[in-house]
Design brief:
Length: 203
Amino acid sequence: MTPTAFLAYCAAVTLAAATPGPAMFAVITNGVSRGFRRAFMAGVGVAAGDAVLVTLALLGLVALAQTFEWIFLLLKYAGAAYLIFLGVRMWRASATQSNEQGTGQAKLSRSFLLGASIALGNPKAILFHASIMPLILDLDTMTFFDGLLVVATVISVNIVTMGVYAALAGRASGWFRTPRRMRLMNRFAGSAMIGTGALIAAR
């Protein structure tokens, strides 16, 4: 893989990761309502899920993934249902309960699984990877090391991009300290989560 092709692929993946979508909204709403750590773990989950998809694309398993599309649908609806559940809970939370900054392992794990389910529940992502690779990379001459480099690139780009969104949302959460602002944040974050969950389920 030439340096030019690698840089072009990095640019394409970065643009795709930075484009607004369900993953970005999930990270931002987690950051605003639950702080940076929870949002960052959701972003790590997105990166892990996307890494699985790009690995499938590299292995030429796009047709297999389409055959077992029900697995992706199950993950998609599970992630959508969890987002809607979180949104409803945010709407019902009192002003003093809104800003959960918990860093317990269970809470961080749930955020990670949420991000991973959103990424894996988007079968169009694997088609993106499978279609963009032949245009930029020479798959006939690609080595095992090149494949590892592609996967590592996807993981790094997603973590950095989602980490930026998580940091910005986490800083914004500090503004919501008064009961009135917390209540407004509850309504906004809850609505965003419910809307994102509905969008994921409808796609």
